[in-house]
Amino acid sequence: MPRRLLAIVCALLFLGFTKAGHAQDITTRDLMRLLATHRGKVVVLNFWATWCGPCMKEMPELARLRAAYPGGRLEIIGISLDYDPDALEAYLSHTPLPYPSFRDQGDVAGTFGVTQIPHTFILNPSGRIHTSIVGETDAVTLRRHIDPLLAP
What we know:
alpha/beta, 6 helices, 43% helix, globular, disordered N terminus
């Protein structure tokens, strides 16, 4: 099986465990493997939690952003910093997200230097951090950072 195809299959299997009402636990190592499968795309990496008011206000904006870029040009990945997995599961079962969300297993936020949430990173198609936004943001602001990365 060609290497790229294998990476895509692994990513799909990995993402298959993150459906509405369930967030798979993730480590930094897991996230790095997942991000590697998205090379060539712009990735929005959003750190959030159910107990964070600004995070909850931001969720509809991320859903709008997801809808604005169909066809795989953009990937959004949520990383929840919820300590209580039941609170996260309850939120996701009532409010399904249109993108995968994972629960940080203690090392992901630290690896990215996240000290407050919401915190959103935009990674360029090479997988490098292009933009870091601390605090609540909106789809218009995110698009201003994303669109130049998608330009031919």
